[in-house]
Design brief:
Blueprint (H helix, E strand, L loop, with lengths): L4 E6 L2 E2 L6 H20 L2 E9 L3 H10 L3 H18 L6 E4 L3 H16 L3 E11 L4 E3 L17 E10 L5 H10 L4 E2 L1 H12 L6 E2 L1 E2 L6 E2 L7 E2 L1 H6 L1 H4 L10 H6 L4 E5 L3 H15 L7 E4 L2 E3 L14 H8 L1 H11 L6 E3 L1 H31 L11 H11 L1 H10 L3 H22 L1 H4 L6 H22 L4 H10 L34 H22 L1 E2 L2 E2 L3 H5 L3 E12 L2 E10 L6 E5 L7 H4 L3 E5 L5 E3 L2 E3 L2 E2 L1 E5 L2 E4 L10 E2 L1
Parallel strand pairs: 1-3, 1-13, 2-3, 3-4, 8-14, 13-14, 15-16
Antiparallel strand pairs: 5-6, 5-7, 7-9, 10-12, 11-12, 17-18, 19-20, 19-22, 19-28, 20-21, 22-25, 23-24, 26-27
Helix pairs in contact: 2-3, 6-10, 11-12, 12-16, 13-16, 13-18, 15-16, 16-18, 18-19
């Protein structure tokens, strides 16, 4: 009988920076789902990869002194290394710089243009460079980008547009007719009520202000923008071609689920479905928007010295412990957090004490009391049936949890039966039974039940902790690991022999490792401070510089400030029509008459401060020319209000 197919994808990672552990959660989550589906017998195709075009990458490459391709090659390599390090079983890793992808994207763009779904126009709006998104004034939050909270700037350029408005009603009906298309429910309501029903604006799908992108074949000034380029990866990876797709596409599309972060759900549930509708292709069955993983309650930041990378955690705790933590600590619909304290606690309590101790002492007892052999399973007691029922109750809970993407609930279900098995040991007291020769058969039954429960636990752990699952099966010397075998109790044959007990997880010395981590975090902070300085000058990136608003301003009035020998009170015309006051510490080098009528460069968005009773709303630029010589930067040939870039 042919296996049922299951196509699952992650969002493709943007190759701007090496991802930290918060970015790596998604690949582990998706891998656990893919592994579980394979365990159930599905024919799984698991896709991940990298998004490699755009203005931001062009800028980063320029800053690094390399070509954009060299830049993305390096970062894409780091991303793939992390995927492999975390033991993920992707079937394909797509890069949007792959030749086959670029050709397919050009064909997609051409088809949409030729059938009238893409048209040429001009875009004028507010642009966020980090998000590579245009916004209208009404879409801003507190005057800033609604996605990332950064500054936006006016932009105007020729562009091609996709007719989202044409497909709005069709999309709205599809979402309402397919209630599980957007999951969880809260995300669906957000998309419908906040974005779709108020009215969709046509989408800018090309850019002409940068070159690092897939060229529009019929208009060399333009490159294809991120939406069509990146989102198309889900079908181009399968060999989609508007002129005739390959067998892989015919077999696996539509996707069963796209696993994505909550911050990009709009692109996957509005832009992507409309692109597919315009192409005449089926829509994915489901889009799951997962929450974020934070460091404690903060976002990870190099400047704070709190960035954690996957390899650091793996080196200290091991791959499976990292996977376990990520999958067990992340809530279904709320942001999760990672901290060393909670990770150490989870490691010692769940892995070392509960799972590791269960396996170790059970295998040791079988070896001690029966030379490693499971001799019989005949002398039962009432307690056994309840124990078996509790063990078997986990699987339906796990299935439901995976169906609803409540992966932490699935992990908890397995941990619960490990705890139940430990309780069974306490209830039956095998060490006491071993002292009575007449209880030998009862002891053998108890140990058989424990080995069988451990086998079931090992199989159920395999999507989360694949190496640990194999290690447990090796210790109990069993290769019975099918999905069918964990639906009932008693698959281990009487007469089987167990292996040797080996500690699965060595308990962590909390004080010792806490001190090591504290020292490491302090070193990270020091390195972050050092990295900020090059010959005494703080190092910033282009986003930091973009936050500083520099304007040309004319000094219309200037006077000394009483009781402040160093300060002059400047009245400036910055082109807004509203006079601005600035207190400047240049009285030692300039008299009021030296400054009045000159034009200077003003930092116009500096937070106001009161200096000697004067509210100073900005700062003017000056240069330290020698040890005791300061010169104001005059720009008399520029108009007041002109922006310095």
């Amino acid at each position: 009988m042919e296996k049922q197919k299951y196509y699952i994808t992650t969002a493709i990672a943007y190759t701007s920076r090496k991802p930290h552990i918060g970015n790596s959660y998604e690949i582990v989550l998706t891998d656990a789902i893919a592994r579980f589906k394979r365990l159930q017998g599905y024919d799984v195709f698991f896709l991940t990869g990298t998004d490699e075009h755009g203005q931001k990458i062009e800028t980063y490459a320029k800053e690094a002194g390399v070509t954009p391709k060299e830049y993305v090659d390096k970062v894409a390599g780091e991303i793939r290394e992390i995927c492999d390090m975390l033991n993920t079983t992707y079937d394909k890793f797509i890069r949007t710089t792959d030749d086959y992808h670029e050709k397919a994207v050009q064909k997609i763009f051409n088809k949409l243009y030729e059938q009238g779904d893409i048209y040429k126009g001009e875009y004028e709006g507010l642009y966020c460079t980090p998000c590579e998104s245009f916004w209208t004034e009404s879409q801003l939050v507190d005057g800033k980008c609604p996605d990332c909270g950064r500054e936006v700037k006016p932009a105007k350029e020729e562009a091609y547009f996709l007719k989202l408005s044409k497909y709005q009603k069709q999309l709205e009906k599809y979402i309402e007719d397919n209630p599980k298309f957007i999951y969880p429910e809260s995300r669906k309501k957000e998309m419908l009520n906040n974005f779709i029903k108020p009215g969709l604006q046509d989408l800018c799908v090309s850019r002409s202000s940068f070159k690092w992108g897939i060229p529009v074949t019929f208009d060399e000034k333009h490159v294809i923008y991120v939406w069509i380029d990146a989102l198309s990866n889900y079908i181009t990876a399968l060999g989609y071609d508007p002129d005739g797709s390959g067998e892989l596409y015919k077999k696996y599309w539509p996707a069963d689920v796209h696993i994505i972060g909550k911050d990009i759900i709009r692109f996957h549930t509005i832009y992507w479905p409309i692109m597919l509708m315009a192409l005449g292709e089926p829509l994915p069955k489901q889009v799951y928007g997962h929450p974020w993983l934070l460091f404690g309650e903060d976002k990870m930041s190099k400047s704070k010295g709190n960035v954690i990378y996957a390899e650091e955690l793996i080196k200290r705790f091991g791959v499976d412990a990292v996977r376990y933590y990520l999958l067990s600590e992340m809530p279904h619909a709320q942001d999760g957090s990672i901290s060393y304290d909670t990770m150490i606690e989870r490691y010692n309590s769940d892995l070392a004490n509960t799972i590791g101790n269960l396996v170790n002492r059970t295998v040791a007892m079988v070896n001690k009391y029966f030379d490693g052999e499971l001799i019989c399973n005949t002398e039962t007691a009432d307690i056994d049936e309840g124990f078996k029922s509790d063990i078997l109750a986990a699987l339906p809970k796990i299935e439901t949890a995976f169906d609803e993407f409540r992966i932490s609930d699935a992990v908890e279900a397995v941990l619960t039966i490990a705890k139940r098995s430990n309780k069974y040991i306490d209830e039956t007291a095998p060490w006491a039974l071993a002292k009575d020769e007449n209880s030998r058969n009862r002891l053998a039954t108890v140990l058989y039940n424990l080995i069988e429960s451990i086998r079931i636990i090992a199989v159920e752990l395999s999507p989360f902790m694949p190496d640990t699952s194999k290690a447990i099966l090796t210790q109990i010397n069993s290769d019975i690991c099918s999905y069918e075998s964990i639906k009932s109790f008693g698959a281990v044959p009487v007469g089987a022999k167990v292996g040797t007990a080996q500690p699965l997880f060595a308990r962590i010395d909390v004080d010792k490792i806490t001190e090591e981590i504290r020292a490491e975090m302090e070193e990270k902070k020091k390195e972050a401070e050092k990295a900020k300085e090059i010959e005494g000058v703080a190092q910033i990136n282009i986003d930091d510089f973009a936050k500083v608003d520099l304007r040309v301003a004319e000094i219309t009035e200037c006077e000394p400030i009483k009781r402040a020998k160093k300060l002059l009170k400047l009245t400036l015309d910055d082109g807004t029509g509203v006079p601005r006051t600035v207190a400047s510490g240049i009285a030692k080098w300039y008299k009021p008459e030296d400054l009045k009528g000159h034009k200077v460069i003003l930092v116009s968005n500096l937070k106001p401060a009161v200096l000697c009773g004067v509210e100073s709303c900005g700062m003017i630029l000056a240069a330290d020319c020698s040890e005791d010589d300061v010169k104001v930067v005059f720009v008399d040939n520029m108009p007041a209000g002109a922006k310095i870039r």
